[in-house]
Amino acid sequence: MKQCRAICLGRGVALLAGVVLLAAAAAAAPPLSVRMVGDDSACPTPAQVVTVLRRLLPRTKVTAETGQATSVDALIADEGSQYRVTIGGQERSFVDGARQCAERARHAAVFVALVLDPPTIPEPAEPAPASSAVIPAVPPLSERPAPQPPAQKPSPSLDLTLAPILQMAPAAGDRHAAVAAGLMAWARAKRGFHLALGTGVLRGSLHFEDVVADAWWVPIHVAAGFNFRTDRWEGGAEIGPSATILSALGRDLERAESQVRLEWGGRAAGFSRFWFSSNFALYLAAEVLVRPSAYAMIIEPGGRVGFTPALWLGGSTGVTFKLE
């Protein structure tokens, strides 16, 4: 009987130890799921934070939500030049006047991961000898300073603009005022000081005293500029060289032949963008193109009928898409 009681008591102690170990492991592990709550039009959006957080917490199901957050949710709030992250009673504010949304998402994800799954320090293999020195008490987690995310280089910013364009050249000599319309595409890199590359195609006509020539223009612009931005509005200006492929053909002429020439010049422009969200904006621009070496139009059988325009004034409106 005594032997049976000893065996039962030993089994009970082993079972109790196993339960305690499982409870400790569950308490140390990150939660099985967490919701990141925020505004889809904010910088960053909950989805951007979730993309980074899933890599930091691979065993946790992380989802992006909008609306009201509960006490167990992670909350991301965009406050203009700064943003605030709240999770598990911890709150941290970050300052970012440049509004780099991808960078904001990384910082927020690191903060949430450190709160939900803080790093552990392994205990020494042998106990340290007793010492008379007083060991300072470790402050609770709520009183510890929030961990600083690792410093990272800002990611490059690139956007693409598609815009219909209308250009007008004043009358000069034997040529009437000319109008051309088409579509332009622009790629711009970074904010503040930036580089831009644009190209497109325009269709129009050149009206001389006795001849009308139908023409196509394929402009290629390279520009350097500067832009500044608030939360919703952005303005900028740029200047640079311009090369345009011109193809012209006399209208209603029996012996007319298509003529192709390359025109060189310069371009200066100003633009504004109104950002509906962190990724989409309405684009407005006005520009001046100067081509000092005007091309002489020669159309048989009349010979030279006039010169191509040396000055163009243009305006365009379209949509900008931000590419990370």
Q: How many structural units, i.e. domains?
A: 3
Secondary structure: number of strands: 15
CATH class of the largest domain: Mainly Beta
User: Helix/strand-derived class?
Assistant: alpha+beta
What is the global morphology? rod-shaped
CATH level 3 topology of the largest domain: Porin
The span between the termini is 75 Å
What would you report as the Rg, rounded to the nearest angstrom? Answer: 34 Å
Biggest sheet: strands side by side, in what order? 6-7-8-9-10-11-12-15
The largest β sheet comes out as: 8 strands, antiparallel, barrel
Summarize the structure.
Helices cover 17% and strands 47% of the residues. It has 324 residues and is an alpha+beta fold.
Q: How would you explain this protein's 3D organization?
A:
By secondary structure, the chain is an alpha+beta fold. The protein folds into three domains: 1-25; 31-119 and 139-154, Rossmann fold; 158-323, Porin. The protein contains three helices and 15 strands. The protein has an eight-stranded antiparallel beta barrel with strand order 6-7-8-9-10-11-12-15. A five-stranded mixed sheet has the order 2-1-3-4-5, covered by helices on one side. A hairpin with an 8-residue loop joins strand 10 and strand 11. The longest helix has 27 residues, at 2-28. The radius of gyration is 34 Å and the shape is rod-shaped. The chain starts with a helix and ends with a strand. Residues 6-10 and 12-27 have low confidence and may be disordered.
